[in-house]
Amino acid sequence: MKQEERRQQTIRRLMDTTKELIAEKGCHSITMQDIMMKSGLTKGAIFHYVKSKNEIFIWVLQERLEETNGSFMNEVEHGRRNFDDPMQEIKKSILAYENPQDITNKVLLYLLGKEDDPMVAEALNQYYNRSVYLSKLWIETGQKHGVIPETVDAEKTGDMFTLMTLGLRIRSSIPQAKAAFKAQDLSEFIRDILNGGERRKGEEL
Description:
Number of domains: 2
Mean pLDDT: 89
Distance between the termini: 45 Å
CATH class of the largest domain: Mainly Alpha
Largest sheet: none
Radius of gyration: 19 Å
Number of strands: 0
Number of helices: 9
Shape: globular
CATH architecture of the largest domain: Orthogonal Bundle
Strand content: under 5%
Order of helices and strands: HHHHHHHHH
CATH topology of the largest domain: Tetracycline Repressor, domain 2
C-alpha cells in the first residue's frame, strides 16, 4: 500500500472512530486511549499524524463544511445551474445544524472553549474564514450563472450567513432554548436575499 493511501486510511479511521465516540460520550470525556482502543490503531500510528484529540476534532469540524461545498459544486458541475438544486444542498446543511445531537455542533462548542490553545485558536480562525469564503463562492457562482442578482454583495452576505449559521448552531446546544426563528426560517431568509427578495408566495425550497 502506498504511503498516501495508508495516511488517508488512518485519518479516515481516526475520524470515524472519534465521531462514534462523540456520539456516545461527548467531546470532554474522550481520551486518546479511548480512540486507540476503539480504532485498533497503535499509539505510534496515531501520533504519527496528530498530537492531540483536538486535532482530530478539527478534522471532523472541517469535514462537514467541505462536504457541503462538494455537494453544492457537484450540482453545478452536473448542469443544474439553476437556483433551487444547489440551494437544496445548503438547506440540508442548515437543517442538520439545528439538531442538538449534531456531532459537528458538539465539536464546535468544545473547541470554542479551548480558544486559549494557539493551535485551536488558529484552526477556529481558519474555519471561520473558510466558511465565509465558501458562502461568498456559492453566491458568486450563482451570480455567474445569472440566478442570483449582481446587486447582492457576496462578501458581506457570505459573512452574514456564516454569523447566522453559527448562532443557530450555538443555540441548538442550549438546553430547552426557545426558538421562534428556526433553521427552516433561516434557509427561507437566505433564499429571499439571494433571490433579490422575490421569492414567490408559497414556493418551497
